[in-house]
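Form 7-S
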Amino acid sequence: MTQETFPMTEEGKKRLEAELEDLKVRRRPEIIERIKIARGFGDLSENSEYESAKNEQSALEGQIAKLEHMIRYAEIIDPSAAGEDTVSIGKRVKFIELPDGEAETYEIVGKAEADPFGGRISNESPIAKAIIGHQVGEKVDIETPGGQFTVEILSVETA
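Output:
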């Protein structure tokens, strides 16, 4: 069985590393302190502050483990490896939905970096899957759970 990798840009990996550092250096000690204080309130079986802090600690440790795993198995994608006008991870793509939609711009990133509301869509999303490998000027049919539509790629640039 092969290990799943997490395609991402170098910038995306750096953001994950910074988030991991924050969780370990700032958040973890805060929660440990809350647990210590809550222990001082007495009977742990009826101590909601203690229970809450322990639950938060568990969630935090899960997030830390997830980030460490994604960083360990990061596959850094070099956007310049694809042609200058070719859609790939690490590129910003502007396209228009045909026949008369508005132009939209997204950066194609690995799923670990995706933030659709911030204009960063996962390479595993239906839109990205459809347009990756296509070039400026091409018309591409996209199949999504909400239906099918066609876009024309207007521009591609390294993000």
